[in-house]
Amino acid sequence: MSTSQTTPTTENPAPAPAVDPRLLVRKSGVAGYAEEFRRKIRSGELGAMPVVLGLILIAIIFQSVTGHFLQADNLTNITKWIAGYGLISVGVVFVLLLGEIDLSLGSVAGTCAAITSVLAVRQGLNEWLAILLALLAAAAMGALHGFFFARIGVPAFVVTLAGMLAWSGLQDFVLGKLGTVNNINDGVVAHLDNYFLGDGDILFAWLLAVLAIGGFLAAQLLTARRRTAAGLPARAIGEIALRTGGLAVVALVGAYTLNQDSGLPLPLVVLVGVVALTDFVLRRTSYGRQIFAVGGGIEAARRAGINVARVRISVFMISATLAGLGGLFIASQQGSADKLLGGGNVLMSAIAAAVIGGTSLFGGRGSTWSALLGMLVIQSITTGLDMVHAAQAIQYMITGAVLLAAVVLDSVSRRTQKSAGRG
Prior knowledge:
The protein is mostly helical and 423 residues long. The chain has one domain (48-195, 265-418): Orthogonal Bundle (ABC transporter involved in vitamin B12 uptake, BtuC). Helices cover 71% and strands 1% of the residues. The chain contains 16 helices and two strands. It has helices at residues 29-43, 49-66, 72-97, 105-122, 127-152, 156-175, 188-194, 202-229, 237-259, 266-284, 286-296, 298-303, 308-334, 346-356, 369-387, 392-419; strands at 180-182, 336-338. A two-stranded antiparallel ribbon has the order 1-2. The radius of gyration is 23 Å and the shape is globular.
């Protein structure tokens, strides 16, 4: 009796071990970039490329159809309109990184706006204090969701579905029989949507562009220095200069375009600031790495010494707080807080933006920049279809098709990564 042992042969070669892409040294020159691009395509690392290409395609199509889609006033309006939904979508990204979902964020946004308006308008409380109390209430709602999910073990879907119903009822109760509270004229909430930094001074748009370019360059150089000190491959100075130059073109053209209208809108500053801050937290802090670890595998995270319950509760608190802030911007856009705020397609648009932008529904992969990019896609489609007077039903169908395409791309990407030994 003998046992056979399979050995690698030329007919049946052993599979190549997976290699961490961070340890790969890219060849210099154009050939190196081409090789790296092919590797990323084969391994499913598409990043933001599909979204950026989609935005370019959307702009080309609607500009050719309308002739004025890329005008400064229209682009300025797009950057203002994405703020409220975009902030909610940033919160969605945090939850999706855990591989979970939060169905209550629309109701939390509406409740936060209702609390702010009632305290400031009906009760005469200082508006800044009213906003602070409302955001604290939103954080408490998220903590409650996180507690039942992380400590009691109730599925996040069920907990947040219950929260959606409960906070919607609280929103109705707070607003009372009238159901609508108009914003204070020239108040804080009223100015969230229509305020331009420096009262339209063109300096502020240029300043933001320069700060973005400088911050990106500094971060790239610091990362390269740290990797070099640790003995790891790092980007060459030429590549850093090329990447910074690309960002500079986008930022400076954006600043020039905004200055052709009214300057730098406050909603865009707040959204970009929140996205940049949360991206720093996720990628540059131990807490952010813990979020990715929990989303990548709960048991592995526990064995690594991570307090999984604490991370989960804090993530739901962050998402609810950002939803509350987004609700204030939506109230500013529509001029009031009412019983419908946060309903309709608010939650679905926020989730769709995060997924379209590249955040995985399966957890462990994504970026808060995906919320910004995804919301730009959705708002650009909506604005373009409005300009050609398309029915709302058409808008929903197209947005749904784009969302489905993003989810399919995510699924295919994960499958490709697994076959490449990185799943």
